[in-house]
Give the backbone structure.
Amino acid sequence: MHQILVVEDESVIRTALRRLLERHDYQVAEAASVQEAESKHTLTDFDLIVSDLRLPGAPGTDLIKKAGDVPVLIMTSYASLRSAVDSMRMGAVDYIAKPFDHGDMVAAVERIIADHPTSRGAPAAVGNASNRVTGIIGNCPAMVTLSEHIRKVSPTDSTVLVLGETGTGKELVARSVHEHSKRADKTLICVNCAAIPDTLIESELFGYEKGAFTGANASRMGLIEAADGGTLFLDEIGELPMEAQARLLRFIQEGEIRRIGSVHSRKVNVRLICATHRNLHVLSAEGLFRQDLYYRINVLRLHLPPLRERGKDILHLAEKMLQVQSQRLDKGPMELSPRAIQAITTYQWPGNVRELEHAIERAVVLSETSEIDNDALGIDLELVNINRIRGHGSNSVQVPALHTPRSITSDPTEDLSLEDYFQRFVLEHQDSMSETELAQKLGISRKCLWERRQRFEIPRKKSSSGGGRRRKAAS
């Protein structure tokens, strides 16, 4: 049975909250002040502390440092939004406004306890130490576990598979593994398998000899060979064509590669890190990904949680990004307004860390004052709250509130957002333009074009012409 400490000076509210939580099978202790909570109870014995912000003597936020790694949920009035934001900056896991709905309180308690398992009596700040080792920002349980796993797998030469949604920072994890490995002084080669055309992926990875196919006017070293002695990071390996998968499997099994058009194999010493946002187990069962390759790369797995499941890490990341962007753009010190922080911590962020980073950068560019508001972030706070109510406080993905898309077939004279324009342009021109031409017209890289296709679920058109001759010659 989970143990909860309720710290509230109003006896009526304290008793009602205790009865509510006891009806949901929680064991509840009470205190009327921070001093009473410290004198009567051992704070680290609890799974959660629910405290009013304004208490006789010390404020409820004093419990945050005193409780160690025990999460603290702050209760405050609707009129004290600034105080609630300040309490989250100090480390509170969340806040809830009074008078609160019973269902909202129970849902918040269930979510916080599920997201913050505590080891009672254990020393605090273990997560901070492990994260300092890996250089990854985040102290939520999932990120602490990730940091610990990185420290353990980095010194080995075993293959690593990084799993996570698009935009969660899988390449950052791969770099961290490389930087903490015995190969840190060697080369790290990063390859996005989805950003290279199918007809070129094999020659890019394995290289080719002069005359291997039309246009091969000189021999060229492949990326695997270039990573010899170091680390090769294959991002979005689920997009790798079957022919390239077979060649990659031989490289993993034998530790050697053969350039296209060559009869000689070359030994290479490369540590392999792969990443994907797709379910490779399902793909292999459907025949879309080689099972033997899946078993070869699924040795050590690292899982990156989506941003919406990282709790107060979201605010820490946003403030760090705001500091970096304001310095980069020479804007001077900037801060987030209470409404901006409320929007950041309640929005679901389907694009994860990358979407947050772009929203912060856009807000810094557009804001004319030192305070960033939710409007500058492009987040409709009212729509976010509606989505949250529909989701009943759960962690499920809600309908995105950022840039609600219009129909792409509507009148082109209307005021389109950048996202609307991107979708319309790609859908109208992808049949007549190559991926390279589309990217050039939009003023972005091929990798960025692919990432936005994934985000807006615009299927990639496979080229059926111009590549057959190259593929046939290469084989």
